[in-house]
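Shall we go through a protein fold together, starting from nothing but its sequence? Please make up or recall a protein chain and show it to me in full. Go ahead whenever you are ready, and we will take it from there.
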Amino acid sequence: MVKRFVQATFVSGLGSVGVALAGFVRGKVLAVALGPLGLGAVAQMTTLVNMLASTATLGLGIGATRSIAGAVDPASARVSRVVVWRSAKIIAGGALGLGVLVALLRRPIATWTIGVNGDPLLVLLAAAAIPVAAFSPMLVAYYQGKQAVRTVAVLTATQAAALAVFTVIGVLLLGRVGAVAALPVVYGIVALWAWRTLRGAPADSVAPDAVRRETRMMLRVGLLSFLVGNSSLLTDYVIRSRMSLTLGVDQTGLYVAVTSVSNQYLSLLFGGLTNYVFPRVTGLAARREHGAVAHEMRTAVVGVVGLTVPAILLFILLRDVVVRLLYSGAFSSAAALVPIVGFGDYWRAAAWAAGVALIPLGMERLWARIALGAVAVNLVTGLALIRMIGVRGAAVAYAVMWFVSAVATIMALGRKPELKLDATALQTTIAGALVVGVTSYTASQGMIWPGAVLLGLWCVAGSRVAFRLWRVSEAV
């Protein structure tokens, strides 16, 4: 498993490098050409599109991945294709309705999201992107279920590169209006790809009862995923809007700058988890190989934590350089948020890795309760702390949310002997938390050397653990 996980992470990482480079170009152009105010406005429109596109999918993407990955024979594979195709058609109608609704409410939405001087035209362009943006997660979910890691990498990198190119063209021609106009153009291209890929399974080739069972599973998993995903997006949207109204859109832009970097480098490391481990665990769970599921999950925790810690430490230690390189000098004050967000990034990685087996094992309700509880903590903490300490309050709330999610997931697994983390996984998680926590604190106090020493020690110790796990995996 270790070898396949590393290979999947490497291939996904190559695709994520393309995504990160494209994101760097897009962010740099927006930062230099539009400044914090313009970046904040474009980020709000992008969040609006992603939030409502996710709403239109009803969370069926993760259900589609589970359905396709869990097919154990050609008959169940045909059932999955029929259900996924029907879901795509439902999504098309729902996304169109949401886009029309946003277009009709463009003026109040502009005021709420980007301030009293918000441009309704930006919202209108975002509304045009919603119907086509809903297809992107379904297409990715389909290829993830097939464990087509290379195809997922090509798809995500191509989409990000196209968005960067059209954003540059749009900014040069029309400023922030052109930047938002790039969204419907790029997502429209991806929608055509998805439509051609997902269609084709004849409904009369499968048993109706099998289709109904698979549909119920997809709806159950999908609706819970929808509830969790949209609650998270809505919370982030409300917190950013609160900052825009009380602190100014420029402060929202600073927060967006830091969290965008987090999303980009974490995507490099989570590729193996989402594109290999989840569908792999789903297949094992469908065959009731629960021992193998536990082994995959524990190895994923060690692998993800081991790879994430050095990346977080480098982000914290080099935060001033990273912020200036990726954005501009106008964003220099955003560097103060990095130690806080970096600590949250660690617990985000731990939560994702520990919870990767919950949905494949039919524990989606437990997963949803943990996630919704953490989102509620983020909302309450964020709104309260923004009033007290400004934009740093949003960063603290982010870190608290992921800490709660990770600890709750690990404790829930501990109640099931067959799933509880082994000594290696627990020790790795605790050690990673201490290393990142100490580095975050000392770096915020202006001390670099403790983090640099811990980075070197972690790499040495981590390489020894990885080599031992590799040998055990090869022996098996």
Summary: The chain has a mean pLDDT of 81. DSSP finds 17 helices and no strands in the chain.
